[in-house]
Request: fold
Amino acid sequence: MESLMRGTSLNSIPSPFLNHTFRQHDSRFTFGFKSPSSTLINNRRPSPPCLRAQQSEKTEEFKVRNSQDEVFATQGIRIRRRPPTGPPLHYVGPFEFRLQNEGNTPRNILEEIVWNKDTEVAQMKDKKPLYTLKKAIDLAPPPRDFIAALKAPYLRTGMPALIAEVKKASPSRGVLREDFDPVEIAKAYEKGGAACLSVLTDAKYFQGSFENLEAIRNAGITCPLLCKEFIVDAWQLYYARAKGADAVLLIAAVLPDLDIKYMTKICKLIGLTALVEVHDENEMDRILKIDGVQLIGINNRNLETFEVDISNTKKLLEGERGEKIRQKDIVVVGESGLFTPDDVAYVQEAGVKAILVGESIVKQKDPTKGIAELFGKDISA
Reply:
């Protein structure tokens, strides 16, 4: 046990250990069940110099994270970017570690996804340094104009353009389609009149992949592609572009204003369109103050509770906000909870010019037919 735990951190501790404590008893360690918020019993053994140095570094890191959280809080961001575990406070025998508690347990599914993504991206960056991605981008075909692709069908038909989502599963609904062939689904969407495609690339929670994105790009699909990912690092923008994306999703519930400003500039630099997603009035007000945002998605799903209410779109487009959007010529995309022609008509009347739909069409045996049923008519002409 001693060799197993020496020098470990929360992320490397096998999950069975996370809800236990260790106690020193008759020179042996025994497991003891305690409440999640419990701390380790300190046996008061003096910390060696090397451990004190490590503690000092972790304390500084904790201070940085705390200051970031304070900035996020001033902007109404409730999602913490990383587990705020803080510096280690206890030295027990030859090792130290922290228990899972209220501070370092995700408070909702979005926070859990973001914490997992932060770790995942750190590992991916080691394997794919930025300079290799820049080389891949230089050799890649030019990006397709995502916004122009949305405006064209709206002008032609007077109905919202469709961003059809290639999506196998979700945390709230589980597996949506067992016989999941991303390329065949993408072809069916394009045949059914989709203006653009959204491709889920998160593997752990949505069973997606960047291989799916690449496969669709290389299959002769002409629709622009949105990389539907949880972006927490600018490196991901380069990775998405290198894998064939024409657009990426930036979530205001996760990213502070400075990150969104920085990332939208990088998107323009490398040819990506940024779809900035909001969920409430505060997030909409924040994004409308940022110059250069051309595409805003209103998600009717609360990403903390996963509850859906399509009236959210109407609420966020009323009054002064709607007027600012019209003045800035921002294209608004309605997202989540759209299953019928009445739903589409409702959000269109509220002011959207495009909709992003996954579940209601990907579950159909024939996604092409599913699109016609969603709009109440064939939109492929």
